[in-house]
Design brief:
alpha/beta; two-stranded antiparallel ribbon
């Protein structure tokens, strides 16, 4: 059973390749938001096991000290294209530690859903289209993560103002919303739309605990939303990357090489997506510092408390002239 009461605010720090390290996960859970990471980040089944052990140990120590520890989430590929042995090993390790939340993407999540339900875990599936949402629901997922326009990494193109209400019209399960959200007003807007949890990636890249290199964090502070380019040239699938990082790597953002196939970018030797070219969402435009995770969560909680109440729209118009 998941203790949702341990959440301070309805936020998950997105599972991000390289960025989501143990420090970021544990700091997120201690601060009162869901800490998440891709199962591939630990790089081996043995390291995945040690990560999950460390998270459970941190949880025990935190709870024993009388504080709350928010749930953690493991992001797993459900694609049949993934090596079957690796999938089975990852799922067995996640089962061993009874992960409370699993986020699946790229494929049929049915096998993961069946396994997670054995130990009381909940499964969300990452979707970018209505059809993807329908297929995930058919597979029995507990919730959906709607990845909208403005998200970092592999993002969607739909506006949350149309995507979320449409999905909510035929799905009464839990919904996470991702895409360009980085402050308390954004959280309030997502909740008003019908979301249950907000997913923030870019905001948590720019934190002291994240696994991103300093140059990536600093670029988020100096970049504008217009510096984010949504392209399939870098990773072989459409994703959002920072134009300044492309230039830094020797690429021309206006003349990027076409990929040679799905998941097959055609980049010059030595340039690698995520490592050489850095990702970010539109929310980079509102990020101006690199604080601790705790500071970010404190700020978000305060902003959410002060967010405009929908019924006050007439008063706000009058005050603004």
């Amino acid at each position: 059973m998941i203790n949702w009461n341990s959440l301070r605010i309805p936020v998950m720090a997105a599972p991000m390749f390289i960025v989501s390290n143990l420090d970021l996960i544990i700091a997120s859970c201690r601060a009162g938001i869901i800490g998440a990471f891709p199962s591939a980040n630990p790089r081996s089944p043995e390291t995945l096991d040690s990560w999950l052990h460390a998270i459970r140990e941190a949880e025990k120590a935190t709870v024993d000290a009388g504080a709350e520890f928010a749930p953690f989430c493991v992001n797993m590929l459900a694609s049949a294209a993934m090596d079957r042995t690796a999938r089975d090993q990852a799922l067995a390790t996640v089962r061993k530690h009874r992960a409370p939340l699993i986020l699946t993407n790229m494929g049929d999540p049915r096998e993961v859903v069946d396994a997670a339900h054995e130990w009381g875990g909940k499964v969300f599936h990452d979707v970018t289209t209505i059809r993807h949402a329908e297929k995930a629901i058919e597979a029995g997922v507990d919730g959906l993560m709607l990845v909208c326009a403005g998200a970092g990494g592999h993002a969607g193109t739909l506006s949350p103002f149309s995507f979320l209400p449409k999905v909510r019209s035929f799905f009464d399960g839990s919904i996470m919303l991702a895409g360009g959200i980085a402050d308390g007003n954004g959280i309030a807007a997502a909740l008003a739309l019908g979301a249950d949890i907000v997913v923030m990636g870019t905001r948590f890249i720019a934190t002291a605990e994240s696994g991103a290199v300093d140059g990536h964090k600093e670029m988020l502070v100096t970049s504008k939303s217009e510096d984010v380019i949504f392209t399939d040239a870098i990773a072989g699938l459409p994703a959002s990357f920072l134009a300044p990082s492309m230039i830094r790597a020797g690429l021309d953002p206006q003349n990027l090489p076409r990929p040679s196939g799905r998941h097959r970018p055609n980049l010059p030797e030595g340039i690698k997506p995520w490592k050489s070219v850095w990702s970010a969402g539109h929310s980079t435009g509102v990020i101006d510092d690199v604080p601790s995770v705790q500071t970010v969560v404190d700020r978000l909680a305060e902003e959410l408390d002060k967010a405009r109440v929908p019924g006050e729209w007439r008063k706000a118009l009058s005050e603004n002239g």
